[in-house]
């Protein structure tokens, strides 16, 4: 069972329809554009995973960091009973994976990923700024 939604935990649920997944997908879509809309794996991979050259590699770097963030976050909840304090915790966890892993990419992809990282970090900082929570957080 999903620890957040209390429904059967499937791959599609964990990675796409869980509230944790939808929050992270929304963050990425807001930062990088509507291309990052996803309802399920087949829908998402159609077109995106078959792009030519560096765009495909760039896509896979971000996609794998996203998947790993969701998998480790939900495992921590199920196995260790440790829940994130804020939704934005998963945004920063995702960005941390991406920052580490982008150094392993080829030069062209690393440079493009660096630009995307700057956009994502700026979006996360904006979301977590004191004025962005409208007083709900404090
Ligand atoms: Zn769920």
TrEMBL record:
It comes from the Eukaryota. The chain crosses the membrane at residues 58-74. Keywords: Membrane, Transmembrane, Transmembrane helix. The keyword Membrane applies. This is Reverse transcriptase zinc-binding domain-containing protein. It comes from Triticum urartu.
